[in-house]
Amino acid sequence: MTHTTRKTRIRAALVVTATALVTAATVSTGVSQAGGAHTAQQPSKKQIAGLFDRWNKALQTGDPEKVADLYAKDAVLLPTVSNKIRTDHAEIVDYFEHFLQNKPVGEKKRTIINVLDRDSAIDTGIYAFTLTDPKTGAQRVVEARYTYEYEKRGGKWLIVNHHSSAMPEG
Q1: How many CB atoms lie within 10 A of CB 164?
Q2: DSSP 3-state helix, strand, coil percentages of the chain (rounded to 5)?
Q3: How far apart are the C-alpha atoms of 87 and 80, rounded to whole Å?
Q4: Is 131 helix (H, G, I), strand (E, B) or coil?
Q5: Is the pTM of this model over 0.70?
Q6: pLDDT (tens digit, 9 = 90+) per residue, 52-109?
Q7: Least buried of 44, 61, 79, 136, by fewest C-beta within 10 Å?
Q8: Is the distance from CB of 126 to CB of 145 less than 8 angstroms?
Q9: Percent of the chain with pLDDT strictly greater than 90
């Protein structure tokens, strides 16, 4: 074996080894990055259902700001007892200033939750509100269809779209 052939084989072996190490490192990085994308856990349906409970408790405070703070800055509210679409914080507060005068207490009758990914979910169904007339104290129950679209922003679950409409006459 000549000195040149031996040198060539050593170089070839080094190139193959270096290539194998680079490939192994690249594959490992790719696997860990792909794994990292799935390590953030999706919320459970129970966690998403709890967001309604949080909203309903905010109603019980009687403070329209506390309710409106559960909505994203760019949220859209299509409310049950108003024909006006609410698209900013001030308009959402305005709606709840009026709605909260009726001391609403909500209860879900049927719910369907779809977790879209780790940062978004939709809760839709039917709920009923017991409303109390502020002048007479008389109570009435209003059933409505609802849809809440939630997004996790800055680590906090917010309502980005809320549609509620009274049940049609049947």
Answers
A1: 19
A2: 40, 35, 20
A3: 15
A4: strand
A5: yes
A6: 999 999 999 999 999 999 999 999 999 998 999 999 999 999 999 999 999 999 999 9
A7: 136
A8: yes
A9: 73
Angle at the Cα of 79 from the Cα atoms of 75 and 84, rounded to 5 degrees: 85
CA pair distance 148, 45, nearest whole angstrom = 13
Residue with tokens 């074996």: 1
How many C-alpha atoms does 70 have within 13 Å on its Cβ side?
22
DSSP string, 54-123: HHHHHHHTT-HHHHHTTEEEEEEEE-TT-SS-B-SHHHHHHHHHHHGGG--EEEEEEEEEEEEETTEEEE
Ramachandran region, residue 137 (left: φ > 0; alpha: ψ -120 to 50; beta: rest): left
Tell me if 56 sits within 8 A of 89, measured CB to CB: no
- Which amino acid, 43? P
